[in-house]
Amino acid sequence: MSAISAPIPLPPDRVTRPYRGGALLESFRSGGTAALVEPTTHGVDGHRPEEWLASTVRAWSAVGKPLTDEGLTVVRDDGRDVTLREIVQRRQFARLVGSDLMRVAGPTTGLLVRLVDAAERTPVHCHPSRGFAERFLGSRFGGTKAWLVLGTRQVRGAPPPSIFLGFRQTVERAELQRSVADGAADALLESMHQRPVASGDAWFIPAGLPHAIGAGVLLVELGEPADFSIVAETADFAMAARDAHLGMGWNVMVDAFDGRGWSDEEVAALRQQPTSAESEPPMQRYRLLGSATEAYVRAERLSVAGGSGVLPWSDTLVVGIVLDGEGEVVAPGGSLRVTAGDAFAVPAGVSDSTRLVAEGSLAVLCCLPPDAEALAATGWRRAVPAT
User: CA torsion 135→137→138→139, rounded to 10°?
Assistant: First the structure.
């Protein structure tokens, strides 16, 4: 079966990170959001707290270490296992990623989806803007992203689940450089906005914004296809100091941080409000992110009850995560049976002819790459080959 004409199953694929977590990933994969209320699958927390879905991105390798294929999604294509990255680089990549996006950005999916489960607070960090990444890291993609909270847990000894976003008052460059060079960010953390989170919350995280995920938060992270984390603290995490600044030195990388003070109103504006969208029964659509994210990522929740509905997008890759229920994803080139906790991808060439079918109910979180027109409007400069 060709991976560019049928739904692509995405089994769990863990990735190593410097913080601990991952137990709730097993619960979610065993039964979706319902399994998070009283988990029956008791996973183990470790240093593989993330799953990467439909990834063409290699996980960051430590400075001085050779590249590995960790993070790259492997799919079955015409009887053999290949990485999704290989498919994107072939002549027929437009059928996977979409001709509109290809025309603007070149051969790229434009998207990296991660399931993230933090059993401890992640280190304070930021991700570079596109301009910064292109200048210093050789990538046209930076690190703007969105968080969609699937569930939470109370970790023993930790405060209630929350997130940290931006500084409350401006932190001058010299002060920030001293703090990150020390590797201990207690003062930085105390200077940041902290917000409680719960299932269903959605947040936009622009490039440069200092942030951290608190202990006990399980979320879907949609972002640009790159793995550049510039980490402001290493003292209590499994990370070498040279990897915190990606081997470029703090004199360079400190400028990736947005050190300005954010008001409460500005932080509140980062929280996204779901809105219903026009749909044909028995399908219901809810847009989970606002228009400000469309040049970076898009996300909707689709629900089908007692029938079927066609995916409402054409010419775009769709990464689906089944939140609840069970059913079938039916495309011209094949079908895939899915149940709560499963993940799959629908190639762009069949996105507008793929149906979600459910005898009972089926709820799917759909993650999409940037809208091609919105991306072009940012002044994006097409380059070949794409990152």
Answer: -100
